[in-house]
């Protein structure tokens, strides 16, 4: 009974905060105006950084497509498919039944690749273009050095520019939402400005959208922040209404549809929410609404992705089911236990149920698509190695975090400021738990759920970033949100004077500016111009000298670009999250092994490969500290360890393949040389 009264006190406090005079109409308008201005700043900043680095506006469309390397080229190719199709329905059908990406198999790319951003942008482009809203200006660019001049267009009617314009809008939205979250958790515009400034001062550690625009995170991360904001607001609501549930469900679904990694982030969110409930910070009613909202969003995503089995077997689905079991079905027996024992028991049961459900569902539905995730973590802490885990862990972005990133954000004082907030929140939570569970006192103020959620989510992101460096792009923006709490009078309550508190925050702004402004200047000084003549030469040869049905295999990054620029079928690609494509790529990569050439030839022949692309930087190295491709094969192909690597041999002497194209960087080998019909005439390949 006493616990019920305490819940009411928590809800009353939260309601008072939401109805504070500071959140008047004028205050909300000021927040909206500042959010738009800050979003515009980031929009202009990232778009100009990209233009400065690539000189994108003066490239031909083939060169523009070539700048989208690896997965970026794969994703953009589907936007191109939608734009070039005779109708939107035809374009969608080509995505629904696609035999160009994993030839000869026909796959549903909308189910496999989180392509709803391209679907939305493609539909928007076609709609606006049909209304005559879009325009472009074209000119001829003389490239010199004996190179042919190219046509270059600029304007929103140019598909690459339209696509990037949407990406830059999403980048602007990212900073706008970060600012709003900062204002909300700190109950201060100054706190929101602190978050925005920290983001800009640590821009290179917060985002990579300016260098890799078509990646999933470019579209998904602002949606992720909107979802986090919806959850943050709802944690402070004792009886969440339909607006709370709808906002969370819709943003959760959009997030999952936009990024295959969303399920892992949302798993950490569900874990943070159930832990808040276990501690007594979050009521059962609020938790139930939050979990059901997440579940609705997940199930809607499953339906939109044509029954994607991987989502049913995800850590997210398992954790949501476990949350409902622990908080509802097992609530009565847990409440019979002493408080500290209950906390430990609920935590253990939640983790055990999540693990058990995850493993059980995966085995029941025979889904192994995300099995490589556990194998990657296993390889990081043990001697366990496979060909697939090494392909991941040998890439720098999948390594441990290292010291470079912490050092950079320390120089801007972001890390010290965030650590200070973590300490203050930890003290507040620890003091409250001591008084409630050890002393039995009911008078101490309960920590604000929004602050506790931000605290726990940041800790989860920190663990993720330490294990996989690439995930620092989740952590650093959330550290920026944490710094907003330094402007919160409720957290920094030891400074009694509001004027002194404001002066301290402004002084911290000034101190951060020394390195922060230098970081911005360093970014602005990056000037370059994209050019890859060897790759362009190869693509032009493929377009002129091979039929549209010619089937290619080769290094994953090159295959994505080849599919995009030449529109030829490929058998492997860099989207490595599916168990089938992992095995398919492993077969193609036998060209990097030490197997006999006839064995490799037959493997490729069985896959119906007609042309094999060799890339010098991938093919020629045979030793790289265990990370050269022949060394990866040595892990599993023990019987051939003493043989020479095959690819360098093929580079010099391609038999039984036939060399049909060669430059300094690339070679194309043909299987079963034959006459190829070109424009109605039969002609020998080069």
How would you describe what is shown here?
Helices cover 64% and strands 5% of the residues. The protein has a four-stranded mixed sheet. A two-stranded antiparallel ribbon has the order 1-2. Strands 7-8 form a two-stranded antiparallel ribbon. Helix 14 runs antiparallel to helix 16. It is mostly helical and 686 residues long. The protein is globular and about 85 Å long.
Secondary structure blueprint with pairings:
Blueprint (H helix, E strand, L loop, with lengths): L1 H17 L6 H30 L6 H6 L4 H14 L3 H9 L12 H4 L3 H15 L6 E5 L8 E5 L4 H28 L2 H13 L1 H4 L9 H20 L6 H17 L3 H18 L4 H21 L4 H4 L2 H15 L1 H5 L3 H26 L6 H11 L5 H7 L10 H8 L2 H25 L10 H19 L4 H13 L13 H27 L8 H13 L6 E2 L2 H11 L12 H10 L8 H10 L4 E5 H4 L9 H8 L9 H7 L5 E5 L3 E5 L5 E3 L2 E3 L3
Parallel strand pairs: 3-4
Antiparallel strand pairs: 1-2, 4-6, 5-6, 7-8
Summarize it:
By secondary structure, the chain is mostly helical. It contains 32 helices and eight strands. The N terminus and C terminus are likely disordered.
């Amino acid at each position: 009974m006493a616990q019920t009264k305490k819940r009411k006190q928590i809800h009353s406090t939260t309601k008072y905060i939401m109805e504070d005079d500071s959140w008047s109409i004028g205050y909300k308008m000021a927040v909206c105006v500042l959010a738009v201005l800050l979003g515009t700043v980031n929009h202009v900043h990232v778009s100009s950084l990209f233009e400065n680095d690539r000189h994108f506006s003066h490239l031909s469309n083939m060169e523009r497509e070539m700048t989208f390397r690896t997965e970026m080229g794969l994703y953009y190719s589907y936007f191109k498919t939608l734009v070039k199709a005779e109708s939107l329905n035809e374009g969608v059908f080509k995505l629904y039944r696609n035999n160009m990406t994993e030839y000869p198999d026909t796959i549903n790319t909308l189910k496999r690749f989180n392509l709803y951003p391209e679907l939305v942008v493609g539909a928007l482009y076609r709609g606006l273009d049909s209304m005559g809203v879009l325009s472009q200006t074209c000119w001829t660019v003389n490239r010199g050095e004996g190179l042919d001049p190219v046509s270059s267009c600029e304007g929103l009617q140019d598909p690459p520019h339209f696509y990037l314009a949407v990406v830059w809008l999403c980048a602007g939205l990212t900073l706008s939402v970060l600012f709003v979250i900062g204002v909300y958790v700190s109950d201060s515009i100054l706190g929101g400005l602190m978050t925005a400034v920290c983001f800009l001062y640590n821009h290179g550690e917060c985002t990579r959208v300016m260098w890799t625009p078509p990646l999933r995170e470019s579209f998904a991360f602002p949606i992720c922040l909107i979802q986090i904001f919806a959850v943050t607001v709802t944690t402070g609501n004792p009886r969440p209404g339909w607006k709370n549930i709808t906002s969370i469900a819709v943003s959760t679904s959009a997030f999952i549809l936009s990024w295959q990694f969303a399920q892992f982030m949302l798993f950490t969110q569900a874990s943070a929410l159930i832990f808040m409930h276990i501690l007594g910070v979050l009521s059962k009613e609020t938790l139930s609404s939050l979990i059901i909202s997440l579940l609705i969003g997940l199930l809607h995503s499953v339906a939109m992705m044509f029954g994607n089995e991987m989502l049913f077997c995800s850590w997210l689905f398992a954790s949501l089911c476990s949350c409902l079991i622990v908080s509802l079905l097992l609530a009565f027996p847990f409440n019979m236990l002493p408080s500290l024992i209950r906390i430990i028991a609920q935590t253990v049961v939640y983790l055990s149920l999540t693990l058990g459900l995850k493993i059980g569902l995966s085995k029941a539905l025979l889904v192994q698509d995300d099995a490589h995730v556990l194998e990657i973590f296993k390889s990081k802490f043990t001697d366990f190695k496979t060909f697939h885990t090494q392909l991941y862990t040998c890439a720098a972005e999948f390594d441990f975090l290292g010291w470079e990133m912490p050092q950079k954000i320390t120089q801007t004082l972001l890390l010290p400021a965030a650590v200070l907030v973590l300490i203050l929140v930890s003290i507040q939570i620890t003091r409250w738990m001591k008084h409630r569970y050890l002393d039995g006192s009911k008078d101490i103020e309960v920590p604000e759920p929004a602050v506790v959620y931000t605290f726990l989510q940041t800790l989860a992101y920190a663990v993720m970033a330490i294990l996989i460096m690439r995930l620092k792009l989740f952590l650093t923006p959330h550290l920026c949100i944490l710094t907003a709490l330094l402007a919160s009078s409720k957290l920094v309550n030891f400074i009694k004077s509001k004027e002194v508190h404001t002066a301290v925050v402004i002084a911290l702004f000034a101190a951060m500016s020394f390195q922060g402004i230098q970081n911005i200047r360093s970014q602005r000084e990056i000037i370059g111009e994209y050019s890859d003549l060897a790759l362009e030469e190869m693509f032009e040869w493929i377009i002129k000298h091979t039929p549209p049905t010619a089937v290619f295999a080769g290094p994953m990054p090159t295959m994505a670009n080849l599919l995009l620029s030449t529109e030829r079928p490929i058998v492997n690609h860099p989207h490595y999250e599916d168990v089938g494509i992992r095995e398919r790529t492993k077969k193609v990569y036998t060209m990097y092994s030490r197997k006999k050439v006839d064995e490799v030839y037959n493997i490729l022949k069985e896959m119906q490969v007609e042309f094999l692309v060799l890339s010098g930087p991938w093919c020629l190295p045979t030793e790289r500290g265990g990370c050269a491709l022949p060394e990866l094969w040595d892990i599993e192909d023990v019987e051939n360890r003493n043989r020479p690597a095959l690819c360098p041999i093929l580079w010099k002497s391609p038999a039984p393949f036939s060399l049909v194209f060669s430059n300094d960087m690339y070679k194309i080998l043909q299987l079963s040389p034959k006459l190829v019909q070109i424009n109605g005439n039969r002609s020998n390949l080069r």
